[in-house]
Specification:
Elements: H1 3-16, H2 27-40, E1 43-48, E2 52-53, H3 66-76, E3 82-87, E4 90-95, H4 97-105, E5 110-116, H5 120-134, H6 139-152, H7 158-165, H8 169-177, H9 183-190, H10 196-202, H11 208-221, H12 225-236, H13 241-246, H14 255-295, H15 301-333
Parallel strand pairs: 2-4, 3-5
Antiparallel strand pairs: 1-5, 3-4
Helix pairs in contact: 1-2, 3-4, 6-8, 7-8, 10-12, 14-15
């Protein structure tokens, strides 16, 4: 990783914190630059855990696997200090809420910190960028953070926010619009039953009932965003939901599902062909090993043991692929 680029990032960041010039830096350099910034623009210290409070603007609503993280910290220590900023009555977390909760669970009295002088806006931006880079936010948490920046806190418009976090204006706008979806659709999105790209297509529908219906169909039938877009287009052209599902000029209301089933059948056929090729290749290798074993005399027992071990492994792999082939064949027959 080019250290020069990371150092340049720190220089830009320290001058304007989230300058427009930062857009376009690779993610690895972002991470390295952020780490250097915390060290250069902050003071490392072990802070009394009782003086630290979570940020009232923290982005994540729920912290998962705190117990597992606590066990890891107990075993290996806290590998990355949390980042805090100074406030009148102590310290406020900028980054590392989950690590902080895990250390509290371990009853630590002090916790390693990078202590920084940041405004509320700078702290929010730093937390937002770090969580986006880590992929720690679900789409709705991300959308809520964008909305708060623009509407609640009034720190800038969509274009300003997009530049600061390295995203397009369209991306930020569509994320914020996710908050207008019905609760049933949001729940499916949080549970990863549907993707953000599918919900983006649902935003084009005017009726909540249609949004809920197509979200359910997409989740239960594993529809792609392209298929959902086709349905949505038909509904927006004036057809009913039932007519959209039947497809233009189609008497069979499940024509689209037939296309999907055809795609799945072709994919299964390809998988079956690959599995058969793998089985044949492994059996050929097994035959070559058997031929080598016949040529090796008893004095070369080390080489014989190695080949016998590989022979057993090949048998195991062949059995695994044969079982997989039988399962695929069973699905095709159904």
């Amino acid at each position: 990783m080019p250290i020069e680029a990371s150092e340049r990032l720190v220089l830009l960041w320290s001058k304007g914190y989230f300058s427009d010039e930062l857009i376009g830096f690779p993610e690895k350099i972002w991470r390295r630059g952020q780490e250097i910034l915390y060290r250069v623009a902050s003071v490392y210290d072990k802070v009394d855990i009782g003086l630290i409070r979570p940020s009232p603007r923290q982005l994540r609503k729920k912290f998962q696997a705190i117990d597992e993280l606590a066990q890891s910290i107990e075993t290996h220590g806290l590998l990355q200090p949390i980042v805090v900023r100074i406030i009148p009555d102590g310290f406020e977390i900028v980054a590392g809420h989950r690590r902080f909760e895990a250390c509290k669970l371990l009853h630590w009295r002090k916790i390693p910190c990078y202590v920084s002088e940041l405004t509320e806006k700078e702290a929010f931006e730093a937390s937002l960028v770090e969580n986006i880079q880590r992929g720690a936010l679900n789409p709705l948490e991300e959308a809520e953070a964008y909305r708060k920046f623009v509407d609640d806190y009034g720190w800038g418009g969509v274009s300003d926010l997009a530049k600061r976090i390295g995203k397009s204006e369209e991306y930020v706008s569509h994320r914020i619009l996710l908050l207008s979806l019905p609760e049933e659709v949001k729940e499916r999105l949080i549970r990863n039953e549907i993707s953000p790209s599918v919900t983006r297509e649902l935003l084009s529908l005017d009726k909540e009932t249609d949004q809920i219906y197509f979200a359910e169909m997409a989740a239960s039938s594993h529809l792609s965003s392209r298929m959902v877009r086709q349905f949505v287009k038909i509904v927006r052209e004036g057809s009913s939901t039932e007519e959209a599902l039947s497809g233009p000029g189609e008497k069979d209301p499940f024509a689209m599902w037939d296309q999907r089933d055809l795609y799945l059948e072709r994919r299964q056929a390809t998988t079956l062909r690959i599995l058969k090729q793998m089985i044949v290749s492994l059996r050929l290798t097994l035959m070559r090993i058997d031929a080598l074993l016949d040529e090796i005399d008893d004095n070369r027992w080390i080489l014989r043991d190695i080949l016998m071990h590989e022979r057993v492994e090949l048998h195991r792999q062949i059995d695994t692929f044969v079982r997989m082939k039988c399962r695929v064949e069973g699905r095709i027959k159904r």
